[in-house]
Amino acid sequence: MVVHHYLVLLRSMFLLLWPIKASKDLCQYDCGNVTIRYPFGIGKGCYFDKRFEVICDYSSGSPKAFLASINNLQVLDNHVYGVSNIRANIPVISLKSSNLTSNAEGVSLSASPFTFSPWDNRFTAIGCNNYTTIIKRQNDSSVFGGCLSISNCDPALNPGCYDFLCALPKNITQVSNAEISSFYPKSIPQECHSVSIVEEDWINSKYMKNPHVLKDHGQVPALLKWAESRGYCYEEYNSKTTCNKDNICLIQLSSDHFCLRNRETSVGPHRHGYCLGCSSGLGMLFLLIGTWWLYKFVKRRETKLKQNFFKRNGSLLLQQQSSSNEGNIEKTKLFTSMELEMATDNFNTNRILGQGVQGTVYKGMLADGRIAAVKKSKLVDEGNVEQFINEVVILTQINHINIVKLFGCYLETEVPLLVYEFIPNRTLYRYIHDQTEEFTITWEMRLRIAVEVSGALSYLHSTTSIPIYHRDIESANILLDDKFRAKISDFGASRYITIDQTHLTTQVQGTFGYLDLEYFRSSQFTKKGDVYSFGVVFVELLTGQKPIRSTDTEEDKKNCLFDMLDAQVLKEAKEEEIITVVMLAERCLNLNGRMRPTMKEVVFELGGIRVSIGPQNCEGIDF
C-alpha cells in the first residue's frame, strides 16, 4: 500500500511537468494546402520566434501562407527533405534597364536564418548569348556568381525566349541589394532577359516540356535551408572556417559570415520549447530516478518487515508442527498478501461477515474458486500472537466434518490472518434466539446438532494424537452450513494437553455462562470443562433461552429444567426422549467434574435417542 501512494504521487508530479500539450492544441496547423510544423507557427506562442512566424492570408480567396519576417515570400511547404528545409515562391526578376544593369527587386534573406540551398536550386537566365553576373556590392568588385549562354539563336528562326540553367553560388542569401549585370545583343527583346533562383527538380520537370517556363511564370519555387544563428565566423582561402563540425559558414552578400547549425532541430510547441523541454526532461529524469530508489527502499523495508513478522508468527508454528506431526507442515498453505487482497477486494467493508473482540472476518473468493472466510486479527501483543499460532497448529491437525476447516494462513504481517472455509448460514445462537415464523428449529434438528457437536468434541478429546480442549464452546461458536450441519469454530483459546502438563492457567479464557464453574475454584481446565460448556449449549437447544438472563425472577430460578422446555420440543418430542435428554443435560452440568460423562459417552447416548426416533442421516457422526 505504501508503494501505491508513491506511484500516485509520481503520476501527479508528471502531470504538473507536462503543460506543453494543452497549449499546443490551441495552435493552427494548416493554411490552405500547407501544413505548418514547428518551429514555424501561426499565432502567438505557436512559433519559435518572430523569424518563424507564419501569416495565413485569406485576401485572395484561397488561404496562402507567408513568412511575416520576409516580404513577398509565400510558403509552399515547410517539411521538404527533412525539417530544416522550406519551399517558397521566389519572384522572377526582369532586366529592363537601358544601361544594361539593374538593381533588381527580389527577396532578401539577410538577417534571417534562411539561405538558398546550393544543392537543390539553380540560378537561371533567359535569352541567347546572355552573360549575366551578380556582383557583391559595397565597393567589392569580385564576381559572386553568374550565368553564361553562348548559344547562337536566331530570333527570326526561333522566336521567343529560352531559359538557361546555371549553378547556384554557394550559400547565397539574397537576390536583392546586389548588382546584377547582363550583357546581351540588342536584337533580343528586353522582356526576354530575366533571372531567378529556382528549385532544380521543378525547373527540370518543366523545362523539358516548355523552354520558356520562366517567362510564363512571375514566381517560381525555390528551396531554402534554415538554421539557428550561432555567431560570426570567417572563411579562409583554403575553404576552412572557424565554425565547428556541427555548423556551416554562411556567406552573406554584405561580406559578413555567420555560423549556422547544419543539423535538424527537434520540434516542440512553444517559443521556449527547447529550454522548457530540456529542463522538464531533466527534472522528470531526476524524479524518476528518485522515485525508483524510493520504491526500492520501501520494497526492501517491506521485505525486511515481512521476514521479521514471518519469523515471529511462523517460527513457533513450524516448530510445534514438526514436533507434533511432520506431515502436517505441508497441509498448511501460506497465502501471500496479494492473494488475500484480491480475494477480499482489498478487505472491502462490504465483505465483512462479522466483528468481534479478537478481530474481523471477511468473505472472499480464492484463486481456485473456493469461498473462504478471512479472519483478520486486531493488533495483538506477544501473548495473543501465541494464541493465534496455537489455533493454526490445532486446526492443521483436524480433519472432521463438524469442525471448520482451515485453508491456510498469512504470517508476513504484524496482524496475522487465518483463512477458513466459508460457512454460509448464521450461528446456532442466532437460530435459537432469533427464530421467526418462517423458520423454526425442529426437535429432530436440535437433537442432530447436539449429536454433531458432541461428536466433534469427542474427536478432539480422544481421536487426535494429542488431546485438544476447545475451552470456549458456546452457541455463538457453532456455525451451521447450507445443510444446517453444525461446525465448531474459534479455536483461539484451545490448547494441546500432554500427559505431564498440570492444565493450570492464571488467565480466565472462555465465555461467562458457558465456562465450567469448577474452573474458577481450581484454575485447572480438563476435558470435563468442554463437557460442561456443551451441557449449557444443550440446555439452550432444549429451552430456547440464554444462559445468562438479567430478567430472571425468583420463580424462574425455582423451576426445574422440565418446566423451561421450549414449546416446539414439548410439541414434537416423546416423553421418554425428553426425560433422557434432560437427565443427560443435568449430568453434563454437574458441579463436580468427575461426575460428568465424557464426550464419547454423550455421543453414544444421544446417538441412541436419534436411532429410536427413526432412520436419520448419521453422516459424519463419530460414536
From TrEMBL:
Keywords: ATP-binding, Disulfide bond, Glycoprotein, Kinase, Membrane, Nucleotide-binding, Phosphoprotein, Serine/threonine-protein kinase, Signal, Transferase, Transmembrane, Transmembrane helix
PROSITE patterns per UniProt: PROTEIN_KINASE_DOM
Signal peptide: 1-22
Swiss-Prot/TrEMBL GO biological process terms: cell surface receptor signaling pathway
GO CC entries: plasma membrane
Location(s) in or outside the cell: Membrane
Domain Protein kinase, residue spans: 347-613
Molecular function terms, GO-annotated: ATP binding; polysaccharide binding; protein serine/threonine kinase activity
Reactions listed under catalytic activity: L-seryl-[protein] + ATP = O-phospho-L-seryl-[protein] + ADP + H(+); L-threonyl-[protein] + ATP = O-phospho-L-threonyl-[protein] + ADP + H(+)
Keyword Transmembrane on entry: yes
Topological relation to the membrane, as annotated: Single-pass type I membrane protein
Protein known as: Protein kinase domain-containing protein
